[in-house]
Design brief:
elongated; alpha/beta; eight-stranded mixed beta sheet; about 850 residues; 30 strands; about 35% helix
C-alpha cells in the first residue's frame, strides 16, 4: 500500500472511532428533541460529526440535505460518505445525481426554491452559515432559511461568527425552537512562530525571502506549509520559485493520469512537492491532484490564493499569509478579521499534529488579528424570490404586495428592509388609490393650484390658452367679484406690441390703454420718410414717397396689416415732423387661464391646497411621514416587472426564474424579436463571466449587454444592474463556450495568461446551470420563451421531463469521472 493510501486510511479510521465531545452530544440531543441547532466552534473541532451522529442514529427520520458553500466541498463530502457505504446524492448545479437519497450533499442555491415552496427535508444542514452576510450569495441563504418549512429542522455550523446568538434570536422570532451550542476550544491549538526567530542556517544558494523562510520552517519541522498569496500570478510565481530553490531529496512520482490532469508546468512543481492552488486551475487539477496530495501529506508547500480560501478543504501543519490584502472585483480589499481567522484555521491537522503553527511574516499579521466578525445582512432585497412568491400569491387570489411584506418581515434583521409598500397595504381603501408609499408621500406633499372663477368658486387652475385682450377680465375683488377689462391694466399690456403705452380713451369706468407707434417722418418737400418697420410690414420698396402716395396707398395698406396683427389703428396723427398711429390692443392675444364658465382672467385670485382626495382623508398625517425616495416596489413598476396591483408581468415572471440580474437580461433579450435564440443561448455564458474573457474588448460589449441597456437604461442597482447590465457580465465567454461546446477538446486552446482552464470550467458550469434553470422553469404563454427552453433542453440533451438530469460536456464529464476515481481511491 502506498504512503498516501496508508495515511488516508489512517485518517478515515480515526474518524470512524471518534468519540463525540460533550458539546457534540448536546447538539445531537437538541436535534433529537426537535430543536434547530446553531453551532459555533473552531475550524477542525468536529462540527460535521454532529450531523454524522444524527444521520447514523436517525436513519428513519427522513432525508437530510447537507449544504456547503462550494462545489469542491460538496464533491469531497460525497466521496467521503460514499466511501463509508452511505447512500448519498449530490446537487450542485452542474451535477445532479441520486436526489432522493437519504443524504443529499448540495450547494444551498440548488435547494432554495424547494425550501421556499415548503418542500424542505427533515434536516437542513448549512455548513459555514456565515454566508448569510456574503454580498453575492447572502440573499439566497437568508430566504432559504427564512422560508424553510416548520417540519424542516435546521443545523447551522460555523466557526467565524461573533454573534451566533443573534441568529438564534432570529430563528426564534420566526417561531422556531432554536438553541445555541458554543465550543471555543480548538482540537489542535495554534502557536505563533515569528519568521525572524527561525535560526536554522540555510545554504547561500537558496535566495529570496520566501524560499529562505520556507526552507528554515521545513528544517524546523513546521511543514507542510500552506501559504496564502493575494492573487493568481503571485501564487504561481511563488510556487515556481520555491520549487526551483528548495532542494528535493525525495521527488514525488506522479501517475500518468495525475500528470495529464495537472499539466506540464504544475507537474514539474509537484515533482518538487510544491503546488499552487487557485480558481484558474481546472477543477480536475485542484480536486483530482493538488488537494488529494495535500491531504495525504505528499506536498511540502501549497501556495493558494486568498480569494479561494473559503473553498479549501484541507489543512496543513503551518499557515503563512503573504499579504494583508487581495483583489476582489478590480478593487484591493484588506483582509477582514474573519478571513484571517479562516486562513489561520487551516493550520494543524487533527490526528496528525499536536499543534498548528501560524508563521508571522513581514506583514506582521498575528493570531490577535484573527477573530470572528459580527454577522449582519446587507441592505439588498431578493427581487427574484419575491417576484416568484408574489406571482404565486396572485395565482391564489391573494394580494401580492402583502405576501412580499410578509416575507420581508422574516429576514435576518431587527428592522425589516422596506419595499416601499408597507404603509400603503395597510390602508388599501385610501381615496388616492396609490399602491406604494413613495407615491403617497409625494402626492400628499404636492400642492394643487386653484383659481377663483367668475362665479366666486374655487376650481382647478387650468393650463393657459390664448385669448384676445378684449375678452380678458381682471377681477378686482374676491368678495364682490367685480371685474374690468384687461385693457385698463398697463401691467398686462407691457409685452405685446411695440411702442409706448398711451391712454386711448377715458371715462367714468376708467382708462383704456393702447400703443403709440411712429410711422414716418415728414420732409420739407412734402414727402414722407417711411420707418423701416412700416416698409417691412407693407413690403414697400423705397424709403421716401410723396404725401399723396402716403395718404392714398400706404395708410390703407398699413391699417389692413395692423388689423391683421390684432392692433387695429384707432387714429393717425401728425405730431410736428412725424406721423404717429394710436393702436388698439383689443385684438392682441394673451395667454391666460379660462375658468369652467368660459371667462378668461388675467392674474386671477389663486391659492394652493392639498389634493382633493387628501383633503377628505384621515391618513394625511401618516402619509406626510412617509419617505419620498423611490422604494423597491415603485422601482419594479418603473422597470415593468409588476403592474399597479403588484402582479408580476411577463418580464417580472422571467426575472423571478433566475438569480439577481440574470433574469432581467434574459427577459430583455426575449423581448427583442430580432435577437436570434440560437445566438442568445450562447450569449447567456456572459452573465457570470466577469472580466477574464473580454481580453482587449470592453467587458460590457456584446448584444446581450446592449439590449439590457436599451431596456433598463444605464442605471446602477446594487446586485442587479451595473451600467444597465448584470454586475457579473463579461463579454467574450460566449465565444469560448460555443467553441468548447462544438469541440470539447479545444478548451486548452482558449487558455491565456489571464484566462485559466479553471475559469473556462467555471463559466461552462455556470452556463449549463443557467440552461438547467431555463429548462426546468415554469411554462409561459410566450413563443420565444418556449423556443429558449427548447434550445436549452437540446444542449443539455434532456427530454421534457424535469426529473432527468443533464450530462456535462464530453471533456468535463470525462474529467469528473477521473476526479471521482482519484478521490474515491483515497478512501
Amino acid at each position: 500500500m502506498s504512503l498516501m493510501a496508508e495515511q488516508l486510511d489512517h485518517l478515515t479510521s480515526l474518524q470512524r472511532v471518534a468519540i463525540p465531545d460533550l458539546w457534540q452530544q448536546q447538539a445531537v440531543a437538541a436535534l433529537r428533541e426537535g430543536s434547530d441547532v446553531v453551532v459555533q466552534a473552531p475550524t477542525g473541532a468536529g462540527k460535521t460529526l454532529i450531523f454524522e451522529l444524527w444521520s447514523n442514529q436517525g436513519r428513519n427520520r427522513g432525508q437530510a440535505i447537507y449544504t456547503v458553500p462550494t462545489r469542491a466541498l460538496a464533491n469531497d463530502k460525497l466521496a467521503e460518505w460514499r466511501a463509508r457505504g452511505w447512500d448519498v446524492g449530490i446537487a450542485t448545479g452542474d451535477l445532479s445525481e441520486n436526489l432522493s437519497a437519504p443524504v443529499l450533499v448540495a450547494t444551498l442555491e440548488t435547494q432554495k426554491n424547494r425550501l421556499i415552496q415548503g418542500e424542505g427535508p427533515a434536516l437542513l444542514v448549512v455548513d459555514e452559515y456565515q454566508m448569510l452576510g456574503d454580498l453575492d450569495r447572502g440573499l439566497n441563504y437568508e430566504l432559504a432559511l427564512a422560508l424553510a418549512p416548520p417540519k424542516t429542522q435546521l443545523l447551522l455550523l460555523s466557526g467565524s461568527v461573533a454573534n451566533p446568538q443573534s441568529v438564534v434570536h432570529w430563528l426564534q422570532r420566526l417561531g422556531r425552537k432554536a438553541v445555541l451550542i458554543r465550543h471555543e476550544l480548538r482540537p489542535v491549538p495554534l502557536e505563533e512562530v515569528h519568521a525572524n526567530n527561525l535560526n536554522y542556517h540555510v545554504p547561500a544558494e537558496i535566495r529570496g525571502y520566501w524560499p529562505r523562510l520556507v526552507a528554515k520552517a521545513l528544517a524546523e519541522d513546521l511543514g507542510p506549509i500552506l501559504i496564502f498569496a493575494p492573487r493568481r500570478q503571485a501564487a504561481e510565481s511563488m510556487a515556481a520559485e520555491l520549487a526551483r530553490m528548495l532542494p528535493t531529496p525525495n521527488p514525488l512520482s506522479l501517475s500518468a493520469e495525475q500528470k495529464a490532469l495537472a499539466g506540464e508546468s504544475l507537474a514539474r512543481m509537484l515533482k518538487s512537492r510544491v503546488a499552487y492552488h487557485h480558481s484558474g486551475l481546472s477543477y480536475a487539477a485542484r480536486a483530482g491532484v493538488v488537494e488529494p496530495l495535500a491531504k495525504a501529506g505528499q506536498l511540502r508547500v501549497v501556495v493558494a490564493t486568498m480569494g479561494l480560501a473559503a473553498g479549501i478543504n484541507f489543512s496543513l501543519r503551518s499557515v503563512a499569509l503573504a499579504a494583508d490584502s487581495y483583489r476582489r472585483d478590480h478593487q484591493e480589499q484588506l483582509l477582514r478579521a474573519d478571513e484571517i481567522l479562516q486562513m489561520f484555521g487551516r493550520a494543524g491537522r487533527r490526528g496528525l499534529d499536536e499543534t498548528g503553527f501560524v508563521l508571522i511574516t513581514a506583514n506582521d499579521l498575528r493570531l490577535l488579528d484573527a477573530r470572528p466578525c459580527h454577522l449582519s445582512r446587507g441592505g439588498l432585497v431578493d427581487w427574484n424570490a419575491l417576484l416568484g412568491l408574489m406571482d404565486a400569491a396572485a395565482a391564489r387570489g391573494l394580494d401580492p404586495f402583502r405576501e412580499a411584506v410578509r416575507v420581508q418581515e422574516r429576514l435576518f434583521t431587527t428592522k425589516p428592509i422596506a419595499l416601499g409598500i408597507e404603509t400603503a397595504i395597510q390602508h388599501l381603501d385610501a381615496p388616492c388609490g396609490l399602491k406604494t408609499d413613495a407615491e403617497r408621500a409625494r402626492h400628499v406633499r404636492g400642492r394643487v393650484r386653484q383659481m377663483l372663477n367668475s362665479a366666486g368658486l374655487w376650481e382647478h387652475y387650468p393650463a393657459a390658452v390664448e385669448r384676445p385682450a378684449r375678452e380678458v377680465q381682471v377681477m378686482e375683488s374676491a368678495e364682490t367679484l367685480r371685474c374690468h377689462s384687461v385693457l385698463a391694466e398697463p401691467g398686462a399690456l407691457e409685452k405685446p406690441g411695440a411702442g409706448p403705452l398711451i391712454v386711448l380713451q377715458e371715462d367714468e369706468r376708467g382708462k383704456i390703454y393702447g400703443r403709440v407707434s411712429t410711422l414716418a417722418d415728414l420732409l420739407n418737400d412734402n414727402r414722407v420718410l417711411l420707418h423701416k418697420w412700416v416698409r417691412r410690414l407693407t413690403n414697400w420698396n423705397g424709403r421716401q414717397v410723396p404725401r399723396a402716395v402716403w395718404d392714398e396707398k400706404i395708410v390703407p395698406l398699413l391699417e389692413q396689416k395692423l388689423a391683421g396683427l390684432g392692433t387695429p389703428v384707432v387714429r393717425i396723427l401728425q405730431e410736428e415732423q412725424r406721423i404717429v398711429a394710436h393702436l388698439s390692443l383689443a385684438g392682441v392675444a394673451l395667454r391666460v387661464p379660462v375658468d369652467s364658465l368660459g371667462v378668461a382672467f388675467w392674474k386671477p385670485f389663486e391659492r394652493e391646497v392639498m389634493p382633493p382626495d387628501c383633503a377628505v382623508c384621515s391618513l394625511v398625517p401618516v402619509c406626510r411621514e412617509l419617505a419620498t425616495n423611490t422604494g423597491v416596489a415603485l422601482l419594479w413598476r418603473r422597470m415593468g416587472l409588476i403592474d399597479a396591483a403588484g402582479v408580476p408581468t411577463r418580464r417580472g415572471k422571467v426575472a423571478s426564474y433566475f438569480s439577481q440580474g440574470d433574469g432581467l437580461a434574459v427577459a430583455a433579450a426575449l423581448e427583442d424579436e430580432s435577437y436570434p435564440i440560437s445566438e442568445l443561448i450562447h450569449d447567456l455564458a456572459n452573465l457570470d463571466a466577469s472580466f477574464r474573457f473580454s481580453a482587449e474588448e470592453s467587458r460590457w460589449a456584446g448584444r446581450l449587454a446592449m439590449v439590457c441597456r436599451n431596456t433598463y437604461g444605464p442605471q446602477n442597482i446594487p446586485g442587479y444592474l451595473d451600467g444597465g447590465a448584470p454586475p457579473k457580465y463579461g463579454a467574450g465567454a460566449e465565444q469560448v463556450v460555443a467553441g468548447v461546446h462544438k469541440d470539447p477538446l479545444s478548451k486548452h486552446g482558449w487558455v491565456t495568461e489571464i484566462l485559466g482552464a479553471g475559469d473556462i470550467d467555471r463559466v461552462i458550469i455556470e452556463w449549463r446551470s443557467t440552461l438547467r434553470q431555463i429548462a426546468h422553469a415554469p411554462e409561459l404563454d410566450w413563443p420565444r420563451w418556449r423556443q429558449l427552453q427548447q434550445a436549452a433542453r437540446g444542449i443539455l440533451n434532456e427530454t421534457e421531463s424535469p426529473t432527468l438530469t443533464a450530462l456535462p460536456p464530453l471533456e468535463f464529464h470525462q474529467t469528473r469521472r477521473i476526479e471521482h476515481r482519484l478521490i474515491l481511491r483515497r478512501h
